[in-house]
Amino acid sequence: MSKHVNWWSRRLHRWGALACALPLVLVITTGLLLQVKKQVPWVQPPTQRGETSNVDPDQSWADLLAIARSVPQAGVESWEDIVRLDVQPERGIVKIRCRNRWELQVDLASGAVLSSSDRRSDLIESLHDGSFFSEFVKLGVFLPSGAILLALWLTGAWLWYLPIRTRRINRRRFAGNSG
User: Fold this and answer.
1) Phi, psi of 32, rounded to the nearest 5 degrees
2) Pairwise CA distance, residues 69 & 105, whole Å
3) Dihedral over alpha carbons 142, 146, 151, 156 (to 10 degrees)
4) SS3 for 174?
5) pTM of the model
6) Which CA distances in Å does 65 have to 68, 84, 110, 116, 150?
């Protein structure tokens, strides 16, 4: 039994590592970038602070749309071009996330644009989980790669333990033979 487990562990470890190598490199690289997204402005723009915090917003929905339209890089013509509004009263801002991954940070009191930059973290996240490519790739490539990675971890742990187990068995045999 043990010889079959060892043989299969080695085979699965060898071929599994090859099968999931490319998706794994992408997942690791994007995962590292996502870990530091708050520290690296290239990944995600740092969150600004408005003039005052915990204020009732002086900007209406129409004002926010007009402000977003006034920034050419945002590419906003209508509400359909806006993916999300992230209102942060404690910071006195609203983040306007646009369909083209552009992010505007607007002061809730004055309506001034405090930050206007590319937000790459959403793109990196979609690469990380495979949804950037398609739902099929996400579930048909990245999900199996994750399962294979789990199997690699299990077979790797077994292959790591094997020499320890063999030494213990040999010590017992030697101790039994010498007495």
Assistant:
1) -65, -45
2) 13
3) 110
4) helix
5) 0.71
6) 5, 12, 15, 15, 46
Of 13-22, 98-107, 165-174, the range with the lowest mean pLDDT is: 13-22
Phi-psi region for residue 84, left (φ > 0), alpha (ψ -120 to 50) or beta?
Answer: beta
pLDDT band at 76 (very low <50, low <70, confident <90, very high): very high
Alpha carbon separation from 24 to 61, 105, 131, 141 (Å, rounded): 42, 34, 15, 10
pLDDT-derived band at 162, boundaries 50, 70, 90:
confident
Contacts of residue 3, defined as CB under 8 A and 6 or more positions apart, other chains included, come to: none
pLDDT value at position 77? 96
What span, in angstroms and rounded, lies between the C-alpha atoms of 166 and 160? 11
- Are the C-beta atoms of 104 and 95 separated by less than 8 Å? yes
**How many C-beta neighbours within 10 Å does residue 80 have?**
8
Return the domain boundaries, the chain: 1-31+120-171, 44-119
Residues 94 and 99: their CA atoms lie apart, in Å, by: 16
> Which residue has 């994750």 as its token pair?
146
